[in-house]
Amino acid sequence: MMRVRWRTSASYLGTVLTALTVPLVLTAGVSLVYGESPVPLLAPAGLSLALGLALGRFERGSLGPRETYLMVSAAWFVVAVVGALPFLLAGTGVFADPVNALFESMSGITTTGATVLESFDAHGRGVMMWRQVLQWLGGLGILVLVVALFSQLSVGGAKLMETETQTTDVTKLAPRITQTARLIGGLYAGLTAALVLLLLAMNVGGVAPRMTPYNAVAHALTTVSTAGFSPEPESVGAFTPAVQWVIAAFMFVGATNFVLLYHLLGGDAGRLVRSEEFRVYLGVIAAGTVLVTVFLALDGTYDTVEATVRHAAFQVVSIVTTTGYASSDFDVWSVGARHLLFLGMFIGGMAGSTTCSIKTFRWLVAAKAFRRNLLLAVHPDAVRPVRLGSTVVDERTIRDVIAYVLLTLVIFGLLTVFIVVDVSRASVALDEFEVMGAAASTFLNIGPAFGPAGPYGTYNVFPRSTKVAMILLMWVGRIEIIPVLLLLTPSFWRS
Amino acid sequence: MRVVVVGAGEVGSSIAESLCVNHEVVVVDIDSERADALTYGMDVLSLAGDGTDLDVLEEAGVAEADILIASTDDDETNIVTCGTATAIGDAFTIARVKRPQYLRTWQRSEYAFGIDFMICTDLLTANAIVGIIGLPTAQDVDMFAGGTVQMTEFKVPSNSPVADRTVAEADEFEQLTFAAIIRDDDILIPNGQTRIESEDEIVVIGHPESARAFGAAIAPSQNGPNDVVIVGGSEIGYQVAQLLEEREFEPRLIERDEERARWLAERLPRTLVLGSDATDQDFLERERIGDADVLVATLENDQQNLLATLLAKRLGTDRAIAVVDTGDFADLFEAVGVDVAVSPREVTAEEIIRFTRSRRMENISMIEGDRAEVIEIEVAPDSELAGRPIREVVTRLPNVVFGAITRDGGFITPRGDTVIEVGDHVVIFAEIDSVDEITNVI
User: Fold this and answer.
1) Which of A344, B190, B260, B291 can pair with A319 through a Cys bridge, CB separation 3.0 to 4.6 Å?
2) Distance between alpha carbon B73 and the CA centroid of its chain, in Å?
3) Which residue from A minimizes the CA distance to B255?
């Protein structure tokens, strides 16, 4: 009888936990620099190492699809739990509550960027940097980074990266999956480093006075990963317009398919230009920016044309790429502008990037499948494949995509209803739009929503039961639902 | 010249037949009876054996041969035969293949597989079909002088405004020459007073633009087809669809086999592939096949093609073109109502023969089977044509029509006082008996 080889999954999970020690120790260094106690970071590092080595002793069989799904699902959850320990151990402010600590950690590793923080000054620099590091680790998928660093995962790694990134494009860069992961991981790290240097240069050049080295690193970590945590209470609104433009550009790049970016760096711009998904992604951003600009201009929200365009563009890029930074408090914008942003939450950037949500390629495939149905009504015998650019999308992918879109909308609806009921039970004053925003923003891993949970607000307003539901759904949303659903089906565990 | 032809099928035989008059031809075929049969009909040496066999080729005298033509029905055999021949001597090797992927490989290197010239039957046939589709009422189309000159064979429909007029009256086109009129079984060389009748086939040579204009004048109601239906997703059907897509058409293609239909649909983004049986009446009604301007039948066998085209004609399709594998059936098809029957073997034979003629003949097209030819010649310094006006030349060559001249890429309409110069490309129409005379003159 075939069963899930959970020992294999556990063993690989051990590798991930062992690897997690490295960023924890590095971040402890930040604590030391600022004269804070490194214990909240070093203690989890020790635990992670011990647990990782212990799990690593399990016998390793071959990594089949079931083992991969189990490992991916478990890894994200376990890393979130270990990642919550520094917050809990620091025990400052809202982090004293384990649910809050786990919420912040899950929001971090899933690159959601929804925060329960109420006061940004109550916490040490080291712990605040840990939030940023968590997001950077989660950006490309912690497993991809692990594959890049540890070649033990090479067997079955291709399937694993597919599960992680929801695209088969990634596997095409090099014959060996570890090489591919290294190229992609290197690009990710390189983009982050480039942004750090650029922000520092702007600081030295005098165009970004508040962009200290700490801020430069913190924001670079959560920009390229399209994650959205910021150690500043006003998010990117704390910085100059020049910084906002630069960060908007890097968010856009972070949500662009990394394989295409890699080819672009190699001098082959054609592949990016030819990508239908990229053109649609760019078109969505452009159209959204124009519409929001018009709304803001009509309402006279900002004084200058530059400010109007900048805030419109920044917010549209931030929401569509699922980053969740704010350059301004968009919660005070007009109904039209806010609803446009709400719709933008469901789009997402390109597959094979750090973005979350439904993703442009799924919408494209769904729209094209629908258009084909219209054609079939007129020509019942037509044989018409669905194409993305010049590539034919296979029928199984089309079915999967449509099921995924539907599933996402259903879960979003259920979560909304749950929160509405839960919130009214706890007598928290939130209107329906605000709840819908929060549900979409957490489940689709965006971050800020509207009302109290808006860009300058906090998710701490929600009752604990809602926060627990959100923790689960951020997790489910980041690994794209299916792996978790599979774990819930009895047939997954049987032969 | 010594020519070795491997494969005595329809293509090989017609090549041998056309070459044996002036050259030493050796025919090799694996089937000894078929090889033997050839020697009764024509003056060739026949040999039974496998063309991929070194010994057989040596016996056929490939070492002394100038040209080797591999024209069996099997692609791989033809390729290997040419490869083997290069091991023996340095004959110019010509291979016939069906599958375009071999052609693409060969085109990439220009000497892959040891082949000097490769001809792709399916692609050539598809090209011929697409040429015919582009010109309403056209029966045959061939290009000369690098595309500057076009030979077109038109059929005059019964209600045509051109019918019952003289050639002088019909000839409103500056860059067009009436080369021949084919009436019943006669080939007439027309003069200004010759009267055009309906059902005549007219061979014109001239600028492609004028040929198109003349096509429109013959049948004003049929201005350029829009709706093209291809029945059968064979390699030829696929190539036709692809060529049509390149010309901005959006054809419909009917293929019964589900898997093949999917394969075609994935490769033909602008074609509407329909997965159905082309003889299903309900389907034909539903898809309004009768409204199509042109229907091309490229199914696997002649009978199916005949059925599909006749069915479409009955439903009201304007023109029906059928691929006919057995060359002898072509006339029969056209007699029972198919507008144009295209034989891949004939098209291939034509193409190969043009390569084996005297080097001064750049291109050739055969009319009415092989009763007449349109030939392109580059005028050499020692040619008797050089420096003479056409009026003078024509008296020596009565059954020859000068259709067009290109000089330095420019088009010249030949008239009686036009003087032929060295380096000119002359496109002439000649009945088969006169071809030898021309060969001597040039």
Assistant:
1) A344
2) 18
3) A383
User: Which DSSP state fits B377?
Assistant: E
B-chain residues within 8 Å CB-CB of A398?
none
pLDDT value at position B18? 80
Residue A321 per-residue DSSP state: T
Contact B85, B3 (CB under 8 A): no
Could you read off the pLDDT of A265-284 as tens digits, one per residue? 988 888 888 888 999 999 99
Q: Which strand (E) or helix (H) includes residue B155? A: strand B149-155
For residues A110 and A88, is the Cβ–Cβ distance under 8 A? Answer: no
Residue position matching structure tokens 């390109």: A350
| CA A430 – CA A236 distance, rounded (Å) | 26
Q: Please, are residues B29 and B8 in contact by the beta-carbon 8 Å criterion?
A: yes
Return the residue of B nearest to A386 by Cα.
B266
Rounded Cα gap, residues B441 and B396, in angstroms: 9
How far is it, in rounded angstroms, from Cα A199 to Cα B61? 80
Candidate from A381, A390, A392 with C-beta closest to B276: A381
E strands, B163-210, are 176-183, 186-188, 201-206
Contact in structure between A457 and A115 (CB atoms under 8 Å): no
Kindly tell me the sign of the dihedral angle through the C-alpha atoms of B182, B188, B189, B193. Answer: negative
Residue B328: both structure tokens together:
């002898």
| pLDDT tens digits, A293-303 | 999 999 988 99
pLDDT for B356 beyond 90: no
Would you state the structure tokens that stand for residue A121, as one six-digit string?
């000054």
Supply the pTM of this predicted model.
0.79
Per-residue confidence (pLDDT) for residue A294, from 0 to 100: 95
Q: B84 and B68 in contact (C-beta within 8 Å)?
A: no
> Running DSSP on this structure, what letter comes out for residue B298?
-
Residue with tokens 């349109």: B374
Listed in sequence order, the residues at least 6 apart from B364 whose beta carbon sits closer than 8 Å to its beta carbon are: B350, B353, B354, B357, B373, B374, B375, B376
